[in-house]
Design a protein that fits this description.
heterodimer; A: mainly alpha; two-stranded antiparallel ribbon; B: two-stranded antiparallel ribbon; 4 helices
């Protein structure tokens, strides 16, 4: 499978991957998986809440109780996480709709560039959200002895577990979005090399 | 026209390299030792994994930026530069987002978790971290512009007519 003269790597990959049926269903399947992962991450984090009652002392014989709640809204990083994953969810839903029922619209030639650019933007968004939440979760799990911030995961174990599950789902969505973005860029390269004159050296 | 475009992108890449390098250096050199209530408190960037990640990512991206400056402009490797630019822009996004999250907790605290803000005790450290984050944000914007430009040059996504 050596490259012939004048053939670029993108055209070679496009020729190998030339069965349009399986490529179509691959992309659709990946988008569905990314949508499900991002939706799972959003929902699990958005419904993440734990209330716990602590006994902080006794007056005579009656114990003093203190009720504390751990919610995701307390941390701005988790709010950003929920919003970012929600947006990625919406994006994948819209793209699935476009793939299934959008073949009759006139995109004026902008369909492939817009899909590729939007996919790249969403990869950046979900990576930012997942990373911020990951570092905040590490802070909550281990604390920071230099700043005298106690860890909270020993007290609110279920909150931490659910948050960890949402993080794993979000990183899975990130991996799927990377693959989808790669495939969209390949589609863009193939379509532009078919439609326009050769543009390999400028 | 092509010559001025080349010079402009070279200059932009050089400025992006300078900003990532200075973000890494400013964050790595932030250190302060004060005494609070007869206890000596030292704040370094390496106390927090998020800041360590920020320094490491900016160092990697500045090495990449330095090597890219030497790529001759007629080479076919500019197509590889598209993929590498994408990867490094994503890394920069994630690093600055993580560092911002932790720096926000350091500045405002989190009263629900019982975490007090530390910025009023180690003011100089906080200001230096703030400066490093601002420079990191500028470098992220520059790298996004460079990435969009290299996508446009190598892939011609808007299918402009060749004149």
């Amino acid at each position: 499978m050596a490259l012939q003269s004048g053939e670029t790597l993108a055209m070679l990959v496009g020729n190998i991957w030339s069965k349009p049926r399986s490529r179509y269903w691959t992309l659709l399947g990946l988008r569905l998986l990314a949508f499900l992962a991002a939706a799972a991450a959003t929902l699990v984090m958005a419904l993440n809440k734990q209330t716990k009652t602590f006994v902080v002392g006794t007056i005579g014989t009656t114990p003093l109780k203190l009720t504390l709640t751990a919610k995701f809204q307390h941390t701005p990083a988790f709010v950003f996480f929920v919003i970012a994953n929600g947006l990625v969810c919406m994006h994948n839903l819209v793209m699935i709709m476009v793939d299934l029922v959008g073949s009759k619209f006139d995109y004026k030639g902008l369909r492939f560039p817009m899909v590729a650019i939007l996919d790249m933007l969403n990869v950046a968004l979900v990576s930012g959200g997942a990373n911020a939440a990951a570092f905040m979760a590490e802070l909550g799990k281990n604390g920071n002895s230099h700043a005298r911030w106690d860890k909270i995961c020993d007290k609110f174990g279920a909150y931490c577990d659910r948050g960890g599950g949402a993080l794993i789902a979000s990183f899975l969505a990130l991996a799927f979005m990377l693959l989808i973005s790669f495939i969209s860029i390949l589609k863009l390269v193939n379509s532009s090399s078919h439609c326009s004159v050769s543009h390999n050296n400028n | 026209m092509a010559e001025s475009k080349r010079i402009f992108t070279f200059l932009l890449r050089f400025i992006a390299f300078c900003t990532t390098l200075s973000a890494a250096i400013i964050m790595a050199s932030s250190r302060e030792k004060t005494t609070v209530l007869a206890l000596s408190v030292e704040a370094k960037y390496s106390d927090t994994p998020a800041f360590k990640y920020f320094v490491i990512v900016n160092a990697i991206v500045s090495i990449y930026g330095f090597l890219i400056l030497f790529l001759p402009s007629k080479s076919q490797l500019w197509r590889l530069v598209v993929a590498l630019d994408a990867v490094f822009t994503m890394l920069l996004t994630s690093s600055i987002s993580a560092a911002l999250a932790i720096a926000y907790v350091g500045k405002e605290g989190n009263p629900n978790a019982g975490w007090l803000p530390i910025c009023d005790q180690v003011r100089k450290y906080c200001n230096q971290v703030k400066g490093a984050l601002i420079v990191g944000f500028i470098s992220l914007i520059l790298y996004i512009l460079l990435f969009l430009y290299s996508v446009h040059k190598a892939l011609n996504p808007l299918l402009l007519e060749k004149s």
